[in-house]
Specification:
The chain has five domains: 3-126, no CATH class; 159-267, Thrombin, subunit H (Beta Barrel); 293-492, no CATH class; 504-593, Thrombin, subunit H, CATH 2.40.10; 634-818, no CATH class. By secondary structure, it is α+β, with helices and mostly antiparallel strands. 30% of the residues lie in helices and 26% in strands. An eight-stranded mixed beta sheet has the order 28-3-27-26-32-31-29-30, with helices on both faces. α9 (271-286) packs antiparallel against α25 (768-777) and α25 crosses α26. The protein is globular and about 105 Å long.
Length: 839
């Protein structure tokens, strides 16, 4: 309904049941007698529109605060919640059939997230003149920091068991203590903090609490050494390791039998296994859904070159961007030895750069161009020409490239439980093969490549004027085809929801017929059940629409199959509407596409290049995944559902300290990050998160938004210290630059790209051994753990793009350098002796 008719909402509702009655005009004139004829005519047109039959299916999953189920009406299945079903049936009774009015009423119920958001915006607008002081609770946005792979493997079981012991130092000093958990080869004990104990100190232990019940030798103690000390406010916790240089075989046999016989009674300590399951689940939510491309860098004879890349279903499209007309991947162009060495020469937590990229297709050949900020600054006469011309092309990209040091040994990821549990666990704990490690031995760094292009930054660079006659000078930024880059082999970590069939790389002409309009394009990959194509023009239809495809080049190689007007269904669209995923529309009468591609793949399997799902060296995909997971550069975050809101659940990063982590540490508890900048919003606190998740599905690529943050830690109240806006909240570019300038003047400016996606279902199969182990000793804990992990609803990445934004708005290099320094923090006033004496 248009805004002009909103004020007549009640009249429209009153007239709906009369729209198909003969006396409709008479009733309209009576009910709307006080309205002008022109408005009365608009009301009639609106009611006639609402009464038109509708064929659209309704799917409210993720869009409403309610559980949706299949609801069938006249042979068509809709996905509706209880409120929507009630509304649907009531409106059908009013109109007499399924109409546009029914559709709009069902999609605008009060529990619809979009409707709620609009209502809240209107309420906020009505209150805009009233001063509001927001003092949010800091704890509301905090989440614990986890580290993927950050759990201990125990070589043996530990039993929770408390018993009094007496420890003797080398000087024969007696210390009373109590065990927390015990194992054959070690103890964890609690002692008073008054005793100054340190690692590597040797102790002799007498188990006084066991001597009363068991015949133990009271004359001989058991030798241990302190492996670590944890001091708390009230006591200290010692981890002790058994020493066997002083033999005590009778005690060893007794203790082994004692633990084995009592572990079900006193319960095995499961803390590290539960931590492992939690961390692995977060990792499984994250690894399939991040959009960055981890490229593993090999160092041989002081020369750096890219060797491997790790693929998932969300970054495949970006990897495919670097395929030329022969489907050879040229991503190595970005990672020259010079660029890698320059990146690694930078300060440890600032080993990053931004690269501008586009490609040019001429005579069916793909030519790649790229330049960093430094390379553009070295040729100032061409800088604006490169940015202005490149940003006008569909292939325009802005990448953030980050480096981090890694260790091939991080590829080994044993379970959190020891080999003694069973043979299956023993197999899973096997170390990587020597053949696999030989492929990884020269890998010392990961280069993380992230596409951070968006419409706002692209429009900014498009304002640069270009002169066509100067375009030939851009060849200096082109990558010569006669000097190919190092070959980068792409591997994919296989998780449970991998694709059902192999996809093969094939670039061939295709014509897409949509309602009589033909759009030219090329296939990117094919399979027997579907394909992916890149179109020369925007695809203006939505998904699930039916189209017809013709393959003129493939038709020339076959006479057996008619490759024109083959039916396909659109399954997914890229954000720029140029890349389309399609599935065969197969019926008994029409299965030509499937039969042709089955024959094509079968007869050309040795020539066609498949995505590397079959690994050359078994386990290399998982090994690369393990290495990257231990070295996640950006900040990954996870959200859980809390009523209708999404709240922080956990964060993960391997970065110790940089500009972004310092911001997120502000007013956060130890080992926590404060995600307040993501949730703070001028209009509504949960604006971006709730309303983005309401419209995307679990298998969709993450949505990306740019967030500007003004950070002044000298302020006490977090709402004053952190001021953040998404860039599309600014109506003019001048407002964005003004915000940046003010942030730099009063503290620090930080810009981040916020990625957000829905999670799929957790893959418990890969951690089944650990889940079973927890279930044996604490089935309630295993069930509670599964429930908690199922409740994780969304994940994303936070990526610092501050330097690119500052250069975009033409701030000086000196200002950019100073902005890396932490701003002055709030100082707590301390009352000294001088002040006390003066009072």
């Amino acid at each position: 309904m248009s805004q002009d008719l909103e004020e007549y909402h009640d009249i429209i509702e009153e007239l709906k049941p009369m729209i198909n009655e003969p006396e409709f005009n008479q009733v309209l004139n009576q009910v709307a007698s006080g309205i002008s004829k022109q408005k009365r005519f608009l009301l009639k047109m609106e009611l006639m529109r609402l009464a038109r039959p509708c064929i659209r299916l309704i799917d409210l999953r993720g869009l409403v605060d309610g559980k949706c189920r299949i609801y069938e009406h006249q042979g068509k299945e809709h996905s509706l919640d209880d409120i929507a079903i009630e509304t649907f049936e009531r409106q059908v009774r009013i109109f007499g059939e399924y109409t546009i009015g029914v559709y709009e009423a069902v999609t605008n119920t009060e529990n619809n997230f979009r409707v709620r958001y609009k209502k809240e915006q209107e309420e906020a607008k009505a209150q805009r003149n009233k001063p509001v002081v927001v003092k949010p609770k800091v704890e509301e946005f905090q989440a614990p920091i986890i580290k993927f792979g950050g759990f201990a493997q125990r070589g043996e079981e530990r039993m929770n068991f408390s018993v009094n012991i007496e420890m003797f130092t080398d000087l024969n000093k007696s210390i009373q203590a109590t065990t927390i958990d015990v194992s054959v080869n070690g103890l964890k004990v609690k002692a008073s903090k008054e005793h100054l104990l340190k690692p590597e100190e040797r102790l002799t232990v007498q188990f006084r609490g066991l001597e009363k019940e068991y015949l133990l030798d009271k004359r001989q103690g058991v030798a241990y050494i302190i492996s670590s000390v944890e001091r708390t406010k009230d006591d200290q916790r010692l981890n002790l390791k058994r020493q066997f240089d002083t033999p005590f075989p009778s005690f060893d046999k007794f203790f082994e039998r004692f633990i084995h016989g009592n572990k079900r009674r006193y319960k095995v300590n499961l803390d590290n296994t539960i931590t492992a399951i939690q961390n692995k689940t977060y990792e499984q939510y994250y690894i399939p859904s991040f959009v960055s491309i981890p490229v593993f860098i090999e160092k041989v004879n002081e020369q750096y070159s890219p060797k491997y890349a790790l693929a998932n279903d969300c970054n495949r499209e970006e990897i495919q961007y670097w395929a030329n007309e022969l489907q050879d991947l040229k991503i190595g162009y970005l990672l020259s030895d010079e660029r890698i060495k320059h990146g690694l020469s930078l300060n440890k937590n600032r080993q990053e750069m931004f690269i501008f990229v586009f490609n040019h297709i001429k005579n069916e050949k793909v030519y790649f161009y790229s330049a960093t900020h430094a390379e553009l600054d070295a040729k100032p006469d061409l800088k604006n020409l490169f940015l202005g011309y490149g940003s006008r092309k569909i292939s325009w990209r802005i990448y953030k490239l980050e480096f981090t040091e890694v260790d091939p040994q991080q590829s080994y990821r044993p379970l959190s439980i020891g080999n003694s549990i069973n043979d299956k666990v023993k197999r899973q704990n096997q170390k990587p093969s020597p053949r696999l490690m030989s492929r990884l031995k020269n890998i010392h760094h990961v280069a993380l490549l992230t596409n951070v292009t968006d419409d706002i930054s692209t429009e900014h660079y498009q304002k640069f004027k270009i002169k066509r006659e100067q375009l030939a000078q851009l060849k200096v930024f082109g990558h010569p085809r006669n000097r190919p880059p190092p070959l980068v082999t792409v591997y994919r970590f296989k998780y449970f929801n991998q694709r059902r069939e192999t996809r093969f790389l094939l670039r061939t002409a295709v014509q897409v017929n949509v309602d009589g309009v033909v759009i030219e394009g090329h296939t990117e990959d094919i399979s027997t059940q579907g394909l992916r194509i890149e179109l020369e023009k925007f695809f203006h239809q939505s998904d699930k629409v039916k189209v017809n495809l013709s393959f003129p080049q493939l038709q020339s190689v076959t006479s057996k199959y008619e490759l024109t007007d083959l039916p396909y269904i659109v399954r997914n669209l890229s954000k720029d509407k140029h890349v389309v995923h399609l599935q065969n529309f197969v019926t008994e009468e029409s299965n030509t596409a499937r039969r042709f591609f089955e024959a094509l793949i079968k007869s050309n399997r040795s020539k066609l290049k498949a995505y590397r799902d079959e690994e050359e060296v078994p386990g290399i995909g998982e090994a690369l995944r393990n290495i990257y997971a231990k070295n996640v550069i950006n900040v990954a975050y996870f959200l859980r559902k809390d009523g209708v809101d999404f709240v922080p659940d956990a964060v993960a990063t391997s970065t110790e300290s940089n500009r972004l982590t310092q911001l997120l540490n502000f007013q956060a508890k130890p080992k926590h990050f404060n995600l307040y900048p993501l949730f703070r919003n001028a209009q509504k606190r949960h604006d971006f998160i709730n309303h983005t998740l309401a419209k995307i599905k679990p298998n969709d690529r993450p949505e990306m938004r740019e967030l500007f943050i003004a950070f002044d830690p000298s302020k006490e109240v977090i709402g004053d210290a952190i001021n953040s806006y998404f860039v599309d909240q600014f109506t003019k570019p001048e407002q964005r630059r003004q915000f940046v300038a003010q942030a730099l003047q009063h503290g620090q400016f930080i810009a981040v790209k916020v990625f957000l996606a829905r999670t799929g279902r957790p893959d418990f199969e890969t951690m089944q051994s650990e889940l079973n182990y927890v279930g044996v000793y604490a089935v309630h804990k295993a069930k509670l753990l599964e429930e908690q992990l199922w409740n994780i609803s969304a994940m994303g990445d936070i990526i610092d793009v501050t330097d690119e934004v500052l250069r975009r708005y033409e701030f000086s290099e000196n200002a950019i350098l100073l902005n890396h320094k932490p701003p002055a923090t709030h100082k707590v006033k301390q009352v000294g002796i001088e002040q006390l004496l003066k009072t």
